[in-house]
Amino acid sequence: MLDILDGARERLARASDPVPCAVATIVSAQGSVPRPVGTSMLVGADGALHGSLSGGCVEGAVLEACREALETGGSSLRSFGFSDEDAFAVGLMCGGSLEVLIQPFAAPPPGARSPLGTVDDPSPAAYVTRLPRDSDLPRTVAPEGDDADDPRAVLLAGDGAEEVRGALTMLLPPELLEAGSAQVAAMLREARSGTLRLPAGASTIDLFVESRIRPAHLVVCGANAFGQALVEAARPLGLRITLCDHRPAFTDPTAFPGAEVVRAWPHRFLAAAAERGDLDARSMVCVLTHDPKVDVPVLATALRLDIAYVGAMGSRRSDHDRRTALREAGVDEEALSRLRSPIGLDLGAGSPSEVAVAILAEILAVRAERRTVEPLRDGSGPLHARTAASR
Question: Which CB contacts under 8 angstroms, 24+ apart, belong to 112-117?
Fold first, then answer.
């Protein structure tokens, strides 16, 4: 939901002609699937279509389910997978299975607040939806009985205990509020999305929690052709990108669209960013400067931080000399073993654009904890990382 939230809000908020929309969200996944839990697709009553759940193999069936929801105003849960009798029509031929929540949204009556918030609201930290109890598919999400008018979803702006508890009072009965709030808050702190199942007598209450976390931070040191190519190639990955160089003549922000350009000595910037909390265990530092007086201080700083990736460009000779200088600067062997230098995978890259691809390929491999990389055709396991399903 969070990946298409702004588009849905904008449609519902149009003053003269609001556009109803339906949102399909993956709430659980098993086996090899193309997209993770929390991925959404938006279908507007005006025919607009944004997002994708599977790269194409279930989109047609999901589109029809969304159109049905727009006509009936009812929500449902649908399952798609290789085991379906109609697998060749709507199944995931990759062998996985998805459970998809279909929700219609219309502009609220005058004076009422939209369940998606307003266009001017800050970005939420999470979207929490109460799922149906009945296990039959398709099934309505609308509640039955005394709680028929209760809201089925809430937006959370933060992960504080009181804030979470206050929001969940609209989704949970009093006897489950304390335990449910604690578990939802833990999921938000750990940036996890998934379904939380709470025992409720002989039944259960299921909450789908979709967390939003700040993007991982990529720091590129070196305002040159390689830095420019890396910034450009990294933009589609949804990272926060900072380009840092101490030379004012080279740091024209217009040359690095999509990046925050900082004019400072990289090691000083990196130390200050760590002190501010702008770096975490997912952060990456790529040093592309080819200048020992820049490389050694910034690498010595980066290798002492708890971050995911530290790489440096240079020949094998310059790498040898740089490692010697880092040892003299007090960097120990354990820290040096984390240095990816020469930077990137051996893809035969030559041009700045090709080198950028090789660097990002290595970053993806490191993030996936792949010690070796081989062609997919030579492997035998699932093509996509298995998504943990909490249902």
Answer: 114/9, 114/12, 114/13, 115/151, 115/152, 115/153, 115/154, 115/155, 116/5, 116/8, 116/9, 116/12, 116/155, 117/9, 117/155
Q: What residue ranges define each of the domains in the chain, with the CATH number in brackets?
A: 5-121 (no CATH), 217-367 (3.40.50.720)
DSSP assignment, residue 35?
A: S
User: What is the DSSP code string of 68-126?
Assistant: HHHHH---EEEEEETTSTTHHHHS-TTS-EEEEEEEEE-PPPTTPPPTT--TTSPPPSE
pTM, whole model, 2 decimals?
A: 0.64
Separation of CA 377 from chain center: 27
Each residue's pLDDT expressed in tens, for the chain with a length of 391 residues? 777 788 888 888 887 788 899 999 888 877 666 677 888 889 989 888 888 876 666 778 888 889 999 998 888 888 876 544 444 444 455 556 788 889 898 887 777 777 677 766 666 678 888 886 544 334 334 333 334 334 578 888 776 778 888 889 888 989 999 989 989 888 887 777 888 889 887 788 889 998 877 788 999 999 999 999 999 999 988 899 999 999 999 999 999 999 999 999 999 999 999 999 899 888 999 999 989 999 999 999 999 999 999 999 999 999 999 999 999 999 999 999 999 999 999 999 999 999 999 999 999 999 888 888 888 888 776 665 543 333 3
Assigned token pair, 371: 């010690």
Nearest CA to 2 out of 135, 106, 153 is that of: 153
285 neighbors 303 (Cβ within 8 angstroms): no
As a three-state string, the secondary structure of 325-364 is HHHHCCCCHHHHCCEECCCCCCCCCCCHHHHHHHHHHHHH
Q: What is the CA radius of gyration of the chain?
A: 24
Task: Compute the distance between CA of residue 243 and CA of residue 253 in angstroms, rounded to an integer.
Answer: 9
Residue 361: count other Cβ atoms within 10 Å of its Cβ. Answer: 16
- What is the per-residue DSSP string for 212-273? --PPPEEEEE--SHHHHHHHHHHGGGT-EEEEEES-GGG--GGGSTTSEEEES-HHHHHHHH
| Environment class of 230 (CB within 10 Å of its CB; exposed 0-12, middle 13-18, buried 19+) | buried
Nearest-angstrom CA–CA distance, 155 and 321: 53
Judge contact between 91 and 84, C-beta under 8 A.
yes
